[in-house]
Design a protein that fits this description.
Number of helices of chain B: 10
Distance between the termini of chain A: 61 Å
Distance between the termini of chain B: 29 Å
Strand content of chain A: under 5%
Structural class of chain A: mainly alpha
Structural class of chain B: mainly alpha
Number of strands of chain A: 0
Order of helices and strands of chain A: HHHHHHHHHHHHHHHHHHHHHHHH
Helix content of chain B: 40-55%
Helix content of chain A: over 70%
Number of strands of chain B: 2
Order of helices and strands of chain B: HHEHHEHHHHHH
Oligomer: heterodimer
Radius of gyration of chain A: 27 Å
Strand order of the largest sheet of chain B: 1-2
Largest sheet of chain B: 2 strands, antiparallel
Radius of gyration of chain B: 20 Å
Largest interface: A-B, 57 and 66 residues
């Protein structure tokens, strides 16, 4: 199908792609032990398990003679002109090969224009992952690679969330914060509890097989992790669909903010499962509630603290422009890690760090640094996304990790779709009483349909302790099916749905000077009218915040020289350039004369 | 006392039907009107200028002027009134109502035009139906130089650039001997096409009387 005119190039490159993991895996096998000791040497351990692209499960296969040969070649006698230094370069080599693979895959997909407009990239990546997983499985009888939760939570997820948080349109975000928070907290809780209870009920009814050994606690745990809307999937799918900004920010904001809820529920139910359902009392439930407040507010606070540190630091980086981007990356990443360290919500921390710092950092750093930050973040995020989807595909092929139960899978799918729709409708009804611009039925359809589950749910389910949660394998299989369904099926069908429903799309072009002037005018007009009408409304408080920001925050966090200018000035500069060029192109200087006479 | 009460209620009901505000919202606005006017039947510019919160607002004068602008009453008259009554007050407030779920596309279009009209009238201070460069410049300067970190010179330059932009979008192929007269309403509509007026230019009118909770802070 996409092996059309470019077929000549495609076939060999495809073969090459398929060969890479196989050969990589083959050489992998021989030095797994040294890899293991290497990782242990790095001292990497902790809750999420040792990170790495290689599954630690493949420890058994040492091919001793080869290892001995390797060692021998180092200490052996005689000078060798060329040596095979695999053990020395293997880890970075394998990582680079995987990254290269992921990037090549992206090139291949975009060779066919028609294909890419219909099928979202995430679908194709998962399919590629399935194919690759199949290949490795055939070659080695077992799966060597899978999506390690450690790798995911420490490296892949922060890249994507960092990029999202830093470039989040903060005005839009705060305008809709009420809606976002409502969906994130109440929506996720509703989904989690309803799914859990219904699954348990269905189990009691016997629709789910007896083999699935799970009690109410286990189902509550499963419900918690399967019910959260996933930021990675939402970005991947929505960025190809271009719905209007309000809709996007609500779904996307929800996917970010529900992290706090997911983290708390997951931890609470994990502890409940460990302790045993008999010992759960009201004290535990109260602790859970307090934990939620601590996790969410604490995470936000950590993020804001780092935002202040970052802004303040960039105020003084005039002489060291070249490392300005480094500050941005490091501090945003540290915000994530610090929150993770204190078991607070890392996603919230990183998001608010990005949102808070963006305004001041973008003003303080040089234009070149701005470009560097933007493109590096986007590149890393894109690669991380690609890797996540490929590995999702590969992990699905590992039969040893999951067990199938049709009842559980079918019921879960039905329930999550059903409760998502019900939740959205219910909450929107409440929300429309308070919102200035109501969310209509079409918006609600898109929001329900856009509630995608993704890699976060998968990583969380893999993290479950198989000893404590006996039905883990069944849960893993169900999660895989759910994630595949939402990303692939819903991802494929959301574009035609949006077109069919005639959802207002976003225009994505830079505002003109006049639009920018009037945006500003709105703020003042609306504040004035509110003041005349005697209302202390939204604009009144926004205005107060702007005053506070101008008086204290900007003085503290912005470089002195920047403090004077504004974005409107930049827009004006651009127009000036553009117009100057077009004027020169026009019929001589006459037009300029005319304008200057009038002006 | 009773007779005048029912008469006021009738007036309110009539207003509510005409403008689309709820009865409760009209009552609250009336209360505020009485507060501003010092219990009189009309308010003048001085009454509005007394509002403290407006002091820092860069387009204070234009907004106050807008309330007294006869064009915003949609009566077909032009010019500026010295005083306005409650009906006119509510009529101006009407421009800031948010769209409701029940509105059709035509209604939304009509609402959008009304809001654009309001803005246009605000810029067009000499009532001649076009916004000349001087008028536009004045607004932009007031808006930018008072509100932020831009000096008068820069604001002037930005106003000029904005004007050029309007010209280039609306009359892209101007002959060398022509000059751009001023922005007409159609051009104004065109230039602000990308702005979502219906969802942006709204304020939330209270349904519940919370004025007693403010303890005079809303002066």
């Amino acid at each position: 199908m996409f092996l059309r005119p470019q077929g000549k190039m495609l076939v060999p490159s495809l073969l090459l792609l398929l060969m890479l993991p196989v050969t990589g895996a083959a050489t992998e096998l021989s030095v797994t032990e040294s890899l293991q000791s290497g990782l242990a040497g790095l001292g990497v351990s902790g809750d999420h398990g040792p990170p790495g692209l290689v599954s630690p499960g493949s420890t058994g296969e040492q091919v001793q003679p080869e290892v001995a040969e390797e060692e021998g070649s180092h200490h052996g006698g005689g000078f060798k002109i060329v040596q095979w230094e695999w053990s020395y370069v293997q880890t970075p080599y394998i990582i680079s090969v995987w990254l290269l693979l992921a990037s090549l895959a992206k090139i291949l997909f975009h060779l066919s224009q028609r294909f890419t407009t219909v099928v979202p990239e995430s679908c194709m990546l998962i399919l590629l992952g399935l194919v690759l997983g199949g290949v490795v499985l055939l070659a080695h009888e077992k799966q060597l690679y899978q999506l390690e939760p450690g790798l995911f939570f420490l490296f892949l997820l922060p890249t994507i969330v960092g990029d999202a948080g830093y470039f989040m349109p903060s005005r839009l975000f705060f305008d809709n914060l009420g809606a976002i928070t409502l969906y994130a907290v109440v929506g996720t809780l509703w989904n989690a509890f309803c799914t859990a209870f219904c699954l348990y009920g269905v189990k009691l009814l016997g629709v789910i097989d007896e083999k699935v050994d799970a009690g109410l606690m286990d189902f509550l745990l499963f419900g918690a992790l399967i019910s959260a809307v996933d930021p990675v999937a939402v970005i991947a799918v929505f960025e190809e669909v271009h719905v209007n900004d309000t809709l996007f920010i609500i779904v996307f904001g929800e996917s970010l903010l529900n992290d706090a809820v997911t983290v708390v529920l997951y931890k609470v139910y994990m502890s409940f499962v460990e302790v045993g359902p008999a010992n759960v009392g009201t004290a535990e439930c109260m602790k859970g509630l307090v934990s939620f407040l601590v996790v969410s507010l604490g995470g936000t606070l950590v993020g804001l603290v780092f935002a202040v540190i970052l802004s303040f630091t960039t105020r003084f980086t005039k002489k060291v422009r070249i490392i300005e981007p480094l500050f941005v990356f490091l501090l945003v990443y540290l915000a994530y890690l610090t929150a993770e360290l204190c078991s607070l919500s890392a996603i919230l921390s990183m998001t608010f760090c990005g949102i808070g710092a963006n305004k001041y950092v973008e003003a303080n750093i040089s234009q070149k640094s701005r470009t560097t930050v933007k493109y590096t973040m986007k590149t890393l995020a894109s690669i991380a996304e690609t890797i996540i989807f490929i590995f999702l595909g590969i992990s699905a092929m590992d039969k040893t990790k999951w067990a199938w139960d049709t009842g559980l899978v079918a019921c879960t799918l039905v329930f999550i779709l059903l409760f998502r729709a019900m939740g959205v409708i219910g909450q929107t009804w409440v929300l429309n009483r308070f919102r200035l611009v109501p969310l209509d039925r079409i918006d609600q359809v898109v929001m329900s349909y856009g509630g995608l589950r993704g890699a976060v749910a998968f990583a969380l389910v893999v993290l479950l302790d198989g000893e404590k949660v006996k039905a883990k394998d069944y849960f893993v299989a169900t999660t895989i099916v759910v994630v595949f369904f939402t990303v692939m099926f819903q991802g494929l069908t959301i574009k035609p749905l949006v077109k069919w429903l005639k959802v207002p799309r976003s225009t994505n072009r830079k505002p003109t000077i006049n639009e920018e002037i009037h945006e500003r005018a709105f703020d003042h007009i609306l504040t004035a009218v509110e003041d005349i009408a005697g209302l202390q409304g939204y604009h009144h408080w926004r205005d107060k915040w702007e005053q506070f920001d101008k008086k204290y925050l900007s003085k503290l966090l912005l470089r002195k020289s920047v403090y004077q200018k504004s974005e409107l000035w930049e827009a004006y500069q651009k127009i000036n350039m553009r117009d100057a060029i077009s004027v020169i192109d026009q019929v001589g200087g006459q037009r300029v004369m005319v304008h200057s006479r009038r002006l | 006392m009773g007779a005048s009460q029912t008469r006021t209620e009738d007036v309110f009901q009539e207003l509510s039907d005409k403008t689309g505000f709820s009865l409760e919202q009209i009552r609250i606005l009336h209360k505020r009107f009485r507060q501003l006017s010092g219990d009189e039947d009309t308010i003048s510019k001085e009454n509005l200028e007394k509002i403290q919160a407006l002091d820092k607002n860069p387009i204070r004068n234009q907004i106050i002027e807008a309330f007294f602008d006869k064009r915003n009453q949609n009566d077909g008259e032009v010019g500026s009134s010295r005083e306005i009554g409650f009906q006119q007050f509510v009529k101006v407030m009407c421009h800031f109502k948010p769209p409701t779920l029940k509105m059709t596309t035509e209604d939304k279009e009509a609402m959008r035009r009304e809001k654009l009209r309001f803005l246009f009238n605000m810029h067009d201070t000499d009532n001649d139906g076009t916004i000349t460069l001087d008028e536009y410049r004045k607004v932009v300067e007031e808006l930018l130089s008072k509100s932020g970190a831009i000096g008068l010179e820069a604001a002037k330059a930005i106003a000029d650039a904005a004007m050029l932009e309007v010209a280039s979008i609306n009359v892209p192929h101007m002959e060398p001997h022509e000059f751009y007269e001023g922005i007409t309403f159609e051009h104004f509509e065109q230039i602000l096409k990308g702005l979502e007026m219906e969802s942006r230019m709204n304020i939330r009118f209270l349904d519940v009387d919370t004025s007693t909770m403010h303890c005079g802070k809303s002066q």
